[in-house]
Amino acid sequence: MNAGIIGLGKYVPEKVLTNFDLEKMIDTNDEWIRTRTGIEERRIAADHEDTSDLAYEAAKQAIENSGIEASQIGLILVATVTPDQGFPSVACQIQERLGATKASAMDVSAACSGFIYGIATAKQFVESGSYPYVLVVGAEKLTKIVDWEDRNTAVLFGDGACAAVIGQVSEGRGILAFELGADGSGGKHLYLNQEQAISMNGREVFKFAVRQMGESAVSVLGKAGLSKEDVDFLVPHQANIRIMEASRERLELPEEKLSKRIHKYGNTSSASIGIALKDELDEGKIKDDDIVVLVGFGGGLTWGAAVIKW
Ligand code: ACO
After folding, report:
1. CB–CB of 112/182 below 8 Å?
2. In angstroms, what is the span from residue 226 Cα to ligand 1's centroid?
3. Is 65 part of the annotated catalytic residue set?
4. Per-residue pLDDT tens for 186-229?
5. Catalytic site residue from 19, 112, 162, 189
6. Is 267 annotated as catalytic?
7. Is the pTM of the predicted complex or chain greater than 0.90?
8. Which residues lie within the region annotated ACP-binding (predicted)?
């Protein structure tokens, strides 16, 4: 039995915050942000919108897109570092709203790697026959943990959500291989501080990300019995265009095979890979039979990669 993505959804809030808006708030400028990160604008959730609202919208769309009923879902996994509250989990909150009455539910805390941790976990439950369908969501209202006076981090993040229904797909398709990893000794480089704001050593995270994304992408291809030449599309975590380009170069891929959506959304942590994947599919960039590599890294430190035959 093979598990794969059978439905996808995404949701981003309406409000756009551009680099020019940020120029009026902190000592920064559009040119610095664009050249150092690739970001031009990001979405900001309204005061009344919290992570569970973003998660719900993306999840509803993914379920509709998959053609199943919410009541058929056996497990809901929500990857997030910005839950509405400590508990109940975002997964339980959306379980009720979606009417997924038969689903168990829990949140996954692996920062920006959370969506890949989620789909790798979902694969186990589907392929073992435990649940026919698992809903995986990546949702973040990062702007509530941004220190708007810290220009090192305030320019990087945005809000958004993605969702995928994982179910059975035909032989030879779906999630062919995955790789997950963690290095707790690097936790000090990226964490939520006592003021409940993001603290980051940008240079250390940058070095780690360039190394780890490249290594994971190569390694996961090996696990799937594939090589760099087989890759049709690379969807990396959208954290910084220079980190994304480095992973493309490591796989020796041409420019057009890299998913670049960071300019519109900034870094949406666990939502970024799924949002980018959905945009590529909607625009016809990813087609049936394509080999797609997803790769991410995040606070923890954590990393994850997956190879999917579409
Ligand atoms: N506007 C203008 N100048 C700035 C800004 C800004 N927003 N931020 C920093 N600078 C200045 C710095 O103060 C520094 O000035 P100085 O030389 O006078 O001290 C200068 O720009 C260069 O700073 P660097 O840190 O060397 O800039 P760098 O090229 O490394 O880029 C960045 C910084 C973009 C943060 C980069 O290090 C990076 O992307 N790191 C990875 C971040 C990341 O991906 N984090 C993931 C978090 S995801 C999660 O898990 C929540």
Report:
1. no
2. 35
3. no
4. 999 999 999 999 999 999 999 999 999 999 999 999 999 999 99
5. 112
6. yes
7. yes
8. 238-242
